[in-house]
Amino acid sequence: xxxxxxxxxxxxxxxxxxxxxxxxxxxxxxxxxxxxxxxxxxxxxxxxxxxxxxxxxxxxxxxxxxxxxxxxxxxxxxxxxxxxxxxxxxxxxxxxxxxxxxxxxxxxxxxxxxxxxxxxxxxxxxxxxxxxxxxxxxxxxxxxxxxxxxxxxxxxxxxxxxxxxxxxxxxxxxxxxxxxxxxxxxx
Length: 187
Fold this sequence. Notes:
Blueprint: H1 3-9, E1 16-17, H2 23-33, E2 45-51, H3 54-69, H4 75-83, E3 90-96, H5 106-126, E4 130-134, H6 137-140, H7 142-147, E5 155-165
Antiparallel strand pairs: 1-5, 2-3, 3-5, 4-5
């Protein structure tokens, strides 16, 4: 698949199944990620690749967080939250390990990791893999960052779920760039 086709036809795939990406495919996805724009060459991206039983460790963190917030959560809620870590064969946790007080502001470093995740998403599509980028409360929880091995200053940019699409991809509406263009105000 050529680059422009991958960029213009990529869609998120919420239902994923086995097989997940092979070792070679994972390496290629991460190679694409680390080619993202990076002002100052700080290389702020860090990745945790979870597959197989390793996903249970993320499930443990998710359940721990649920019980911290809702100590009386029933078994159904606990099973539901644990299942979120198991809804794809592979999960890449993308984190911005930022350098504070640098000429490159923290927000630019976080955007660089966002660009790295976008590269993963497009590369996955080009390899006929399904991918879904998730964030939510889990990504913004300070104690979750600590459980993942990161400092308060760092930012979880997303959880990228990868696998084989379990259903046909949804189609996106036809849109043109004109709908999103604005002119610079006069004056």
